[in-house]
Design goal:
Layout lengths: L2 H4 L1 H14 L3 H7 L3 H4 L1 E4 L2 E4 L7 H13 L2 H9 L25 H21 L13 E5 L6 H9 L9 E5 L4 H8 L7 E6 L6 H18 L5 H4 E5 L2 H7 L6 E3 L16 H7 L1 H20 L6 H15 L4 E7 L6 H13 L17 E3 L11 H6 L6 E8 L5 H20 L3 H10 L4 H11 L7 E8 L2 H22 L10 H14 L10 H10 L1
Helix pairs in contact: 2-5, 7-13, 8-13, 8-16, 13-14, 14-21, 15-21, 16-21, 19-20
The structure holds 6-O-phosphono-beta-D-fructofuranose.
The site of 6-O-phosphono-beta-D-fructofuranose has 14 residues, from loops.
């Protein structure tokens, strides 16, 4: 047993979990009319309602003790101060510096120089002064990247569709499946298309293959390598490799080792977003994130939104043994948010050893999944309501829509709030029986049918409400989840900023590729891998 699970703080939570398990959520509401006021937090147009969770005032005190025991407050300061907290790669994790107005520090200077360069470039493109090889303005931006060089920008561009500029459309190509790029380019004109090759390393196989295909597509149309300078820009730490690809130095926007891929949206990796919604809106996104940074850095644990979300995750995964969390944005514009969170959360917390290399003896990151409401209600919500797994839910709602159809938006909100209510209240056997008898069914039929209609309830959820979907509120929302992930990693004692687990598959794919492109039967791997390769040959 590690010191943490042996500690009085951890043991007290085990005992309190047993006591609270006896008290259904809806009785906690009945017994305490102030429950919402007591268990909700607000900052900058964002409300966190965590009252429909298995907690009480004592649980929150015990959470605060755990946060203190694990040194969370000090760890937050250490991250903001730029210490080397990514110990396996010997790097700081300074994504917060990317959205800080501070422009005089070592990091602040390079960040703001880059933002200013982006501003000049975005201005030239969006004002149609940047000319392609035929002298035409850019109408389409194609971002080629994967993981953190794709998911964040694609999600934010879609979330902020209300702010998209006329005259420029952004597209995101990530998959090495050639169909992804081909389908994207099908309707585009090489003379008016700008490619952003987004890769921190500029070695990622998927991105490099797609970038080379895009280059061929352009050169087939222009037949002049000088066209590359007008149609390709790169965002990378690897200026040398981007140069070898053919992108001139003045078209390369820098990135830095101290920004992890999944935390890089705020750097020049956000360039397609800035091109799509304008630089002022991109800066508002950064300002929203910075305001959440201030909240995270200054609010005490029990008043701190990301910290409270992290402690709730810990509560369920480590004390209720849950395995997943479902994320349900009730907003079509946020439909990519669960996929974005999967990388942020699962690549950060999917670890089996602590920072010192010793095995963990607690559950680390859980499975993050979900999709936009109300669609899920007509598919997987059945399992949330009546399945055998306990799955805490994050509902995300937007109070004010930009749509003119306000009435339909109220239906969306009603469904969101009804789902969290249904998860909590469920339906008892008595209620199901009375309902069926009321419909005139015989007692024998009711006895058979009623058990199928029982919904156990007592299932926890948290609801985040954004006043409006704006660049500012999106910045806050994303930063909130980033900090939640970091806070959880501190409580668990793991490194949230490396991702060694993704390397092995990349290495093995090289050997398999060599076999796939060579004639003859493959016999060198296990029988399954051999057979799969041979079938495709
Ligand atoms: O393979 C995982 C990963 O390294 C992610 O962490 C990263 O966001 C993604 O690949 C893309 O990496 P790059 O930006 O270097 O192409």
């Amino acid at each position: 047993m590690s010191a943490l699970t042996d500690s009085p703080e951890w043991q007290a939570l085990i005992q309190h979990q047993a006591a609270l398990s006896e008290r259904p959520l809806n009785t906690l509401f009945r017994d305490n009319p102030d429950r919402f006021a007591q268990f909700s937090l607000n900052t900058d147009g964002l409300l966190l309602d965590f009252s429909k969770n298995h907690i009480d005032a004592q649980a929150i005190d015990l959470f605060a003790n755990l946060a203190q025991k694990t040194g969370l407050g000090e760890a937050i300061e250490t991250m903001f101060s730029g210490d080397v907290i990514n110990n396996t790669e010997q790097r700081p994790a300074l994504h917060v510096a990317l959205r800080s107005p501070e422009d005089q520090s070592e990091y602040g200077q390079v960040v703001h120089q880059t933002l200013n360069r982006m501003a000049v470039f975005v201005d030239a493109v969006t004002r149609w002064q940047w000319q392609g090889f035929k002298g035409d303005p850019v109408t389409d931006v194609v971002n080629i990247g994967i993981g953190g060089s794709d998911l964040g920008p694609a999600m934010v561009y879609s979330a902020l569709s209300d702010f998209q500029l006329d005259g420029i459309r952004c597209h995101f190509v990530s998959n090495v499946d050639p169909v992804h790029l081909e389908e994207t380019l099908e309707s585009l004109d090489p003379a008016t298309t700008l490619f952003v090759i987004a890769s921190k390393t500029f070695t990622t196989m998927e991105t490099m293959l797609n970038a080379h295909s895009a280059k061929r597509w352009l050169l087939e149309a222009s037949d002049d390598s000088a066209a590359l300078a007008k149609h390709f820009v790169a965002v990378s730490t690897n200026v040398e490799k981007a140069g070898e690809f053919g992108i001139p130095a003045e078209n390369i926007f820098p990135m830095w080792d101290w920004v992890g891929g999944r935390y890089s949206l705020w750097s020049a990796i956000g360039l397609p977003v800035a091109l799509g919604i304008g630089m002022d809106n991109f800066r508002a996104l950064l300002a929203g994130a910075h305001s959440m940074d201030n909240h995270f850095q200054s609010a005490p644990a029990t008043q701190n939104i990301p910290v409270m979300m992290a402690l709730l995750d810990c509560w369920y995964q480590n004390f209720f043994d849950t395995e997943s969390r479902v994320v349900l944005p009730y907003s079509q514009q946020l439909h990519l948010f669960p996929a974005y969170l999967q990388q942020l959360d699962m690549e950060s917390l999917g670890k089996s050893v602590m920072k010192d290399g010793k095995p963990v003896n607690v559950n680390t990151g859980g499975i993050i999944w979900g999709s936009a409401g109300t669609n899920g209600q007509h598919s997987f919500h059945q399992l949330l309501h009546q399945g055998t797994h306990l799955i805490p839910a994050d509902f995300i709602a937007v109070a004010e829509t930009s749509s003119r159809n306000k009435e339909q938006h109220q239906q969306l909100l009603a469904n969101c709030f009804a789902q969290s209510q249904a998860l909590m209240d469920g339906k008892s056997l008595e209620a199901a029986t009375a309902e069926l008898l009321g419909q005139g069914l015989s007692e024998a039929k009711v006895a058979k049918l009623a058990p199928h209609k029982v919904i156990p309830g007592n299932r926890p959820s948290t609801t985040l409400v954004l006043d409006k979907l704006t660049p500012q509120s999106m910045g806050s929302l994303i930063a909130c989840y980033e900090h939640k992930v970091f806070a959880r990693s501190v409580i668990l004692g793991i490194n949230a900023f490396d991702q060694w687990g993704v390397e092995l598959g990349k290495v093995l794919s090289t050997g398999i590729y060599d076999e796939l492109v060579h004639d003859g039967e493959t016999l060198k791997f296990d029988s399954s891998t051999n057979a799969l390769i041979n079938r495709c040959k």
